[in-house]
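Notebook entry, structure prediction.
Reason for the run: the old model in the group folder had no record of what sequence produced it. Starting over properly, with the input documented here first.
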Amino acid sequence: MGDQRILALVVILGLTVVALTALAHRIRVAPAVPLLLGGVLLALVPGWGGVAMDPGVVLLLFLPGLLYWESLNTSLREIRANLRVVILTSVLLVLVTAAVVAVAAHAIGMPWPTAWVLGAVLSPTDATAVSAIARSMPRRMLTTLRAESLINDGTALVLLAIALEVAGGSGEFRLGSAAGLFFLAYGAGIAAGGVTALAATFVRRKVEDPVLSASLSILTPFAAFLLAEVVHGSGVLAVVVSGLVLSQVGPRFISAGARVTGLSFWRLSAFLLNGTLFVLVGLQVPRAVRGLDSTSLTRAGFAVLVVGTAVIGTRLAWSYTTPYVIRALDRRPSQRLRRVSARHRLPSAWAGFRGAVSLAAALSIPTTLKDGAELPGRDLVVLVTAGVILLTILIQGLSLPAVLRWARLPADRREAQEERLAQRAAAEAGLAALPMVATDLDLPAHVVARVRDEYVEHLAELSEDAPEDDGPEDGSPTHDASALRSLRAALLPHKRAAVVQLRDDGTIDDIVLRRVQARLDVEDLRLAPPSGAE
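New structure, fully documented this time:
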């Protein structure tokens, strides 16, 4: 591919992502749906059918960044509260799904080694698809789905490596060896993520320049992934752990400038990477059809329907059986309060979208395995994977809003209440610190009185459920402006500390902390001296 063609590909992919996302907003559907269909249509344009999705680029470039962004935007409090569900779905459900898919695929004529490879490929849900399509769900449900999709990729990739090892020469499955690989992948991955997070924390504490600090944030997921690969751990888990650790410790030392710069980059990058991935997946569907030569297209289409039904049906069956087993075993009152009715459970059961990770895993299957062996039906594995991704995103994605309406989920008012509580705590902390800060700065009494009045008024508004104010306006005389700015800025660390303490106590979750913290960051940058950056 020439340089101009590569540039044309970048431009057209970018324009496609922007245009189809705008269309999705206009017709009120999840952007993943038109992006996926747009990729399929783009592949039919002469000259674009040969565009291949490099699995290495997806697994080593796209995946770390997207997983890191998702982990930064996940509530650790909700993960801890739903840890049992997250572990069961991200490990045991992956294994069960792989087994059911393997049995279904073998039943329609696929050899056992190939069937198990296909099961491993299609066993995980996709974090990007879940975030793109299911974002309208309540916080607890969405957090559980996100946590599941962040972790189950690691389980599935280890399972795929075992399936390929068996298919490539060993010829038999050894439980002890497989368990050892799982423990190694999980343990080394968690350790690599923790070490990377600690190193990033140490370095970023020393860096004051916001651009350099944000640059280190960009490098963190790739460093975690690389370290995990070196020690034969799960790169996926390493990235997720590093993101979760930094989401906990970062608010204590990352400056407002670095945070705003980093979040702006990640928000834009995640949008472009997500959109591009869906378009690339769509581009591979016609390519997979053209590359099919081991069987007929009719039989392949039947395989897509059978395997897709197995994938969706397994998740539905899991969601309506395991909760009752858990209820029978765990009778604690605290667990009874967290029980979800069968009607309310359906959206989570229906949101098992497959995505780019599955397709990248299928495309990464080598044509020649260990000892020169070949995987029979590799082309069918790729086509079925692409077809199941289409089924889950189009059928489940388009019908999810109707499922949510049918489920009649209760409104989650806790988030708004926690946000108001955090704002009140921040204002009270600022008001309590005002006398000490004013004394340290040696400011005039009328300046201190004005700021005190602002805080008292703001607390009254929060108590009365009045519309929130965007912040105090600086209508003071010129000679007081600098003193007011200095006093307001000096109170911000006390406000931040109060909000972080609420998060640490479990009173508010990480999502609320980030929202309130963003407001304080904007105020911090607005109050910064005009002539100097951080």
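Summary: The mean pLDDT is 88.
The old model has been moved to the deprecated folder.
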